[in-house]
Recover the amino acids of this structure.
């Protein structure tokens, strides 16, 4: 049964997978692409003849990380069974791998856009990008992040004979660079006043719609989302707020004046198109963005990824205003036999008792809101926060926010093709916690959310409408 199914699917249009990965316009050209559109991988494994199988990739040698990568193998035997494996090491040298079992078509061709993966690997079914989104760390509780956006990730692809538990003979191998900086994008470290940040400017003279990008409790200065967003025509400031250089080492108290300095920096930058800017925040960075939008001037659009509308984790101060952090009860944390904590019920409700003081007064904001929600988020109840934020805005006569919910998506909704992180260390809890999500649904959510975020900012920062709508 599987052989018949595989052969029929392998004859389907090779563009079917592209319909499942709809981009808002043409994808940016790969930086410094070398070779023709289709090119074989590196030399066949040593000792094989010149007729040995080879890997074809498009783009051939280098692509942007949020860009689809077409993978095919040529020169196999008719209906030959093979196992494909991808490997990638992050900057700490930790290894991520994925593998999948396939059967070539009658002509010896194996195109992942047309041939489904068979059961027994990291995934099954027709998943052209499965070998990337299914990458998993060999080290437990490790999440894939990009620390240096100026260098690419190096992706290793291998083709092995057969479907055994132990890999058979190596038939072909290739390498491919997954880059973060598009040619011409400028990376500018910013150390003005108290600001500790990196500004990314697209190619050209500008001005460009401006965005400030904030991550969560991990601290430091993550640049990869800001960088990838700049590839699509935005001026993006990746802003650190603790755990970086001379900024506070711990997440105890934040002063909104620091973030106000960053907003004013962007509003007065000659390469940033006014009159207002956008904010993009994930997790703790999300509730900081809600506070910025509520109290600061010059904010036109705020996009929130699995964010709280209550202040969480640290006291927030602005002038004579103090917002306490939302209370939590450690007794509501569930720890399984694996030692992984489920913290989804740890926080108190911001609708009850003294915790109402932690609800950020987002009705003061003069901007539009977009809530991106993973409905399987186990960090906290993101959908609840989005709905309560919407109720509060409408109760005060404000515009109803956009809320886009993704079934099966967890907490870390990243740019497209980052593998889902099911569990990792949580700095505040000091132990591994589950983030939620089902890998395939999470991957699809990341692709769609990336389009939704860009369309939202194009609409509200430039007045341009994008032909994108949720496919899920």
């Amino acid at each position: 049964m599987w052989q018949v199914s595989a052969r029929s699917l392998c004859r389907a249009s090779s563009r079917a997978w592209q319909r499942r990965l709809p981009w808002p316009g043409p994808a940016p050209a790969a930086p410094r692409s070398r070779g023709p559109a289709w090119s074989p991988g590196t030399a066949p494994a040593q000792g094989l003849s010149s007729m040995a199988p080879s890997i074809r990739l498009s783009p051939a040698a280098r692509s942007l990380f949020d860009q689809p990568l077409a993978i095919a193998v040529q020169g196999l035997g008719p209906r030959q069974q093979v196992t494909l494996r991808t490997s990638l090491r992050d900057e700490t040298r930790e290894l991520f791998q994925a593998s999948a079992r396939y059967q070539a078509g009658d002509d010896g061709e194996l195109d992942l856009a047309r041939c489904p993966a068979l059961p027994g690997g990291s995934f099954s079914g027709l998943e052209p990008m499965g070998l990337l989104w299914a990458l998993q760390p060999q080290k437990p509780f490790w999440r894939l992040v990009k620390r240096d956006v100026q260098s690419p990730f190096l992706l290793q692809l291998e083709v092995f004979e057969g479907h055994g538990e132990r890999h058979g003979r190596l038939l072909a191998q290739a390498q491919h660079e997954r880059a973060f900086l598009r040619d011409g994008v400028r990376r500018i470290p910013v150390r003005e006043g108290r600001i500790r940040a990196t500004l990314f400017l697209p190619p050209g003279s500008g001005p460009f719609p401006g965005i400030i990008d904030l991550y969560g409790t991990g601290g430091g200065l993550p640049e990869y989302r800001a960088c990838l967003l700049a590839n699509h025509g935005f001026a993006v400031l990746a802003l650190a707020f603790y755990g970086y250089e001379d900024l506070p080492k711990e997440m105890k108290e934040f002063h909104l004046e620091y973030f106000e300095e960053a907003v004013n920096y962007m509003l007065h930058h000659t390469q940033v198109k006014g009159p207002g800017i956008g904010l993009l925040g994930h997790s703790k960075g999300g509730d900081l963005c809600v506070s910025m939008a509520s109290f600061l001037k010059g904010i036109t659009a705020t996009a929130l990824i699995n964010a709280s509308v209550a202040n969480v984790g640290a006291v927030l101060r602005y002038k004579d205003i103090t917002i306490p952090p939302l209370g939590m009860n450690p007794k509501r944390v569930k720890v399984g036999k694996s030692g992984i904590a489920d913290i989804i019920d740890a926080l108190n409700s911001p609708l009850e008792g003294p915790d109402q003081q932690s609800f950020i007064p987002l009705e003061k904001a003069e901007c539009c809101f977009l809530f991106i929600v993973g409905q399987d988020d186990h960090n906290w109840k993101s959908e609840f926060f989005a709905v309560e934020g919407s109720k509060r805005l409408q109760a005060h006569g404000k515009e109803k926010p956009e809320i886009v919910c993704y079934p099966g998506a967890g907490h870390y909704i990243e740019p497209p093709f980052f593998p889902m992180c099911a569990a990792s260390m949580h700095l505040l809890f000091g132990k591994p916690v589950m983030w939620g999500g089902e890998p395939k649904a999470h991957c699809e959510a990341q692709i769609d959310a990336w389009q939704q975020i860009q369309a939202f900012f194009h609409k509200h920062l430039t007045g341009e409408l994008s032909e994108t709508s949720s496919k899920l």
Remarks:
- Residues 17 and 452 are 20 Å apart (CA to CA).
- The chain has a mean pLDDT of 89.
- DSSP finds eight helices and 25 strands in the chain.
- The longest helix spans residues 439-462.
